[in-house]
Every structure is written in structure tokens, then in C-alpha cells.
Amino acid sequence: MQVDDIRIFIPCKNYEQSQRFYKALGFKIEDASNDLCVCTFGECTFFLQRYYNKTFAENLMLQLCVLNIDEAYELISNLNGFNIRFEGIKQEPWGSVIYLWGPSGELWHVTELN
């Protein structure tokens, strides 16, 4: 078996708000069906689904690797109108990270690796 890609399905408490949030982060949004869309940034892709399970969403963690953590922080800190929260840049042994909780409670580790 050869693996080409792994894609996650992210649940949405509010499907339309989540689409706007990810678009504001720079993702291209394309409908796959009435209840599913594909979010793409360069070669990176994931799905948003019109489905919500609180326990799953609030325990979901993802890592978004970026080339410039300061640029990512600038973008994140200027997002308005979304039910999100984030922490400042933290230094870890493996790189710099911003913890960003999306509109459905999903936790993103926005990371610039060493």
C-alpha cells in the first residue's frame, strides 16, 4: 500500500461561520455537497462537515505548520467576528506555536518548526 494523503473531517457547530473563519485564514473553500466542503491551502486539504459533536470537536487537535509564526500571529490576532480564542506565541523545544481554538472548539497548533 502506498499512502498519498490523509484528510480530516472537522465538525462544525455553525457550518457557515466555520467556512467564513477558514476563508479568513486564507483557505479556499469548495462545496463537495450541501453538508461538506473542501478547504485547501496550497497542497494542504481538509473537510468541513455540517455535523457537530461537542465532545469530539472539543477534543480535536490539529497542527498547521507555517513558515513564519509572526505573520500567522498577525493574521490570527486581526480576525474579528468569530467565536474563537488564541494564545500568544509560545516557544517550545521543537519550535514556536500559537494555540488557536476555532469556532467549534477545535484546537489548532499553528506551528513554525525549528
From TrEMBL:
Record has Lyase as a keyword: yes
GO MF terms, alphabetically ordered: lyase activity
Keywords assigned: Lyase
Name of this chain's protein: Lactoylglutathione lyase
